[in-house]
Amino acid sequence: MMSFQSPGFPVSQFRTLIVLSAILLLNVPAFGATHYIRAAAGGSNNGSSWTNAWTTFSSVTWTRGDTYYLAGGTYNGDVLIPTSESGASWIIIKKANAADNGSDPDWNAAYAADQAVINGRLSIYNGYVEIDGVTGSGTTGHGIKIHLDSDRTGFNAVIALSSGTASPRLFRHLDVQGPGFDYGSTGGDGIYWNSAIAGSKGFTIQYCWIHEIPRNGITLGTIEGTSYSDYGLLIENNVIERNGGVGMRYPNVHGQTIQFYMRPLSYGIFRNNIFRNATGQAFISILGGVTTTYIRVYNNIFYSDNGDGIVYGLADTGTATSIAQLYRMFSNYEDLLGRTLTNVTKGATGVITSVGTTTLAIAGGMSGGALNEAGDEFYFYVPCRSAYFLATSIYSSAGNSITYAEMDNNTFYNIGKAAINIVTPSDATGTIARNNIWVNGYFTDTRTLWPPMTNTGYYNNIYGPYDPVDTETSDPFVDSSAYNFHLKATANAVNGGTDLSSLFTTDFDGVTRPQSTAWDIGAYEYGGVLPSATSTRTITLTPTISPTPTISPTATISPTRTPSATISPTPTITLTRTVTRTITPSPTITLTSTISPTSTISPTSTVSPTTTSTPLPTKAMDIPADTALVYPNPAQNQAAFLVKLRAPGEVKIDIYNVAGDKAASLSGVAAGETLVLTWDCSQAATGVYLAHVFLTGGKHCTAKFAVVR
């Protein structure tokens, strides 16, 4: 589904549009109906309107091709979507929002303002399902929250996806919260889809916050795209943090941020994410002798917080304590020395005085009993940098084939096992790392292959025998203590990178690369400003108006032009407005006047009407990928469809009236990530139309708009 702007319209069209707004509320069975879910609804509980909305998910009837709008509120209990697939028809669950729902007759702004919280697990059996919270990024503002507050049997995940089919799944703007970083003994994942079905692709996670997860943040199986435009996996603009804590207490439990296990991976994209505070083998871990080819990991930030963290373990049998578990958690074993060890089982404490390959010594034993009995549980505190959040940056286990993996312009800070660690691969053709920067990391993990590294930055790391020395003479970041990893002007990383514009052209913030003579190293480009800047300016317009004016829906005026004329009779009409807009090198300001249908302009009156601004197409570039914007809406002679894609590809648009008759078909090929197609609707009848937009990779969305005369 999409968001659309509704500009003002002439008096002569007002009554027509009242009728059209009522028609817009009708369901169009041929293309899927609209349903409503609201916890506090008091109507007939059939999903037909906000008043009659379903109050619980257990009441919902799921139908392929339909869209389900979810109002803010609390929904207790698990959610199950078991519906079988029907071609490429999607089930879309979308947070209520003013753009889509503001004209609903029983609309309340609180439906959009309040977060929708699902206290339970979301289980989905098949593909072509989209969950869109509409708003939110980073760690705030997500329209939908899914919170699992306890371990469950089965998949053990907040969002559990059965293998089902190979079809796409899409998750946007969600807060995915588990029961706690170190909750329980077996853990549970944030999102779990361990598909074994060949050709599984189109899996998308965008603008989500995945956190407090005891095991893996995300666990995935078979991912097989055919190209970067027909991708297997897209993970972008997310924050994934505080996962894998159970593995500290029970070392055989995984704790990766993203794990691929025993399944092939091809055409995966990881970009513009924050990976923070994870334990386990790695932030991105590819395990089990799989075949991985064509992945891109760029503009990401990997780091752990400063301070001390707690490490748990279990005592082994024998006369001395096994420290095999501890070895898994340390990059520098000497940090164990002098640490106070607490035997939780016996309530005893002791200080570690020496560390061997299989044992450790405790000064004077431990009051209350030695730590030498099977099942005794212990813990101690250590610096985060050395142990607590130890994950390797990117890891591929022995025997994997990992080819054409490109790891570029990432920032790594305060990580225990800092390496990109590709262990004895069967094939590593085309695998390379460029323009990455490491600060305050431990490079002490043993590895047999370090991928070719170019244009790399280092500062204040603890290095192993195979690592380079510092390239920076001081901390290159603006404020490491506040985790602000933008580059200082004095950093050697500025202009120190290699040009990768054939792969991507912006940094983590969306700033264009390069900003100077060469690319920078790390996730941020120094000195950049966002491609769009917002400015506020006041424009006074004195237009030519006869006593009975006709005002078209929109009027485009150059920003430096002040039209004026002599009016007879001599009314004075002053329109003073503040326009907030995106400034481009050659800006155009579009002004729309909205006049009440009952207002009249007397020859001597002064009227200051309320005006609204219709966003320019360039501003509409902010719409999410795989969506479109129709403008103007309503249209009179021509309707334009701005389509935002993830990658270049074909676009087809079929336009139907409410009776289901096809009015037009449009098609085109996007050379970039946007495409504009236009429809001459000058001969189309007044009414409501539905546009079906078909995108590369089987993706599909719909849009309603009006045509007026």
Features of the shown structure:
709 residues; mainly beta; 13-stranded parallel sheet; eleven-stranded parallel sheet; 5% helix; globular; disordered N terminus
Number of E-type strands:
54
DSSP helical segment count: 6
Mean pLDDT: 74
What is the helix content? under 10%
Largest sheet: 13 strands, parallel
Give the structural class: mainly beta
Query: What ranges have pLDDT less than 50 throughout 5 or more consecutive residues?
Result: 1-31, 317-332, 383-392, 531-621
Question: What is the topological layout?
Answer:
Elements (H helix, E strand, L loop, with lengths): L13 H10 L10 E4 L29 E4 L2 E4 L2 E3 L9 E5 L2 H4 L8 H4 L2 E4 L2 E3 L4 E4 L11 E4 L9 E5 L7 E4 L1 E4 L11 E5 L9 E4 L2 E5 L4 E3 L2 E2 L8 E4 L2 E5 L2 H4 L8 E4 L3 E7 L2 E5 L3 E6 L3 E8 L2 E3 L4 E7 L9 H5 L11 E4 L4 E8 L4 E3 L14 E7 H5 L3 E5 L4 E8 L2 E3 L6 E3 L9 E3 L2 E3 L2 E2 L9 E2 L2 E3 L2 E2 L13 E3 L4 E4 L45 E9 L13 E3 L17 E9 L5 E5 L17 E2 L14 E5 L6 E7 L4 E9 L4 E9 L3 E7 L6 E9 L4 E8 L2
Parallel strand pairs: 1-2, 2-5, 3-6, 4-7, 5-8, 6-9, 7-10, 8-11, 9-12, 10-13, 11-14, 12-15, 13-16, 14-18, 15-19, 16-20, 17-21, 18-21, 19-22, 20-23, 21-24, 22-25, 23-31, 24-32, 25-33, 31-34, 32-35, 33-36, 35-38, 36-39, 37-40
Antiparallel strand pairs: 26-30, 27-28, 27-30, 28-29, 41-42, 43-45, 44-46, 46-47, 48-49, 49-52, 50-51, 50-53, 53-54
